[in-house]
């Protein structure tokens, strides 16, 4: 399993434990949790993308931040 899949799974698991107590689930909140977990790209993701200056950690983070608005 990929590093990113594990990272998202851990984030969702933590959120699930937090919301179990309140018995409320917001699919938007779970989606936000998953997207936030994607904010820091893995080395494999950076290596798979185009070479800098087109894509780097900062550009990736900016794109994720925009998705979270």
Describe this structure in words.
There is one protein chain. Helix content is 67%, strand content 0%. With 69 residues, it is mainly α. It has one domain (3-67). The protein has helices at 3-20, 27-37, 43-48, 57-67. The protein is elongated. The protein has four helices and no strands. The model has no long low-confidence stretch (mean pLDDT 82).
Question: Would you kindly provide a brief summary of this structure?
Answer:
With 69 residues, the chain is mostly helical. The chain has helices spanning 3-20, 27-37, 43-48, 57-67. The protein is 67% helix and 0% strand.
SSE diagram, text form:
Elements: H1 3-20, H2 27-37, H3 43-48, H4 57-67
Helix pairs in contact: 1-2
State mean pLDDT (0 to 100 scale).
82
- Please state the CA-atom Rg, rounded to the nearest Å: 14 Å
Total strand count, please? 0
Which sequence of SSEs, written as H and E, runs from N to C?
A: HHHH
- What's the total helix number? 4
Taken as a percent bin, the fraction of beta residues is: under 5%
The protein's oligomeric status is single chain
Secondary structure: helix percent: 55-70%
* Poorly predicted segments: none
What would the principal axes of the Cα set say about the shape? elongated
State the separation between the terminal residues, measured CA to CA: 29 Å
The SS-based structural class is mainly alpha
Give the key terms.
4 helices, 0% strand, mainly alpha, 67% helix, 69 residues
């Amino acid at each position: 399993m990929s590093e990113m899949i594990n990272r998202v799974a851990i984030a969702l698991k933590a959120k699930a434990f937090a919301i179990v107590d309140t018995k409320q689930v917001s699919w938007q909140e779970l989606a936000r949790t998953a997207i936030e977990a994607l904010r820091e790209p893995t080395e494999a993701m950076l290596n798979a993308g185009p070479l800098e200056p087109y894509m780097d950690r900062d550009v990736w983070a900016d794109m994720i931040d925009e998705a979270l608005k």
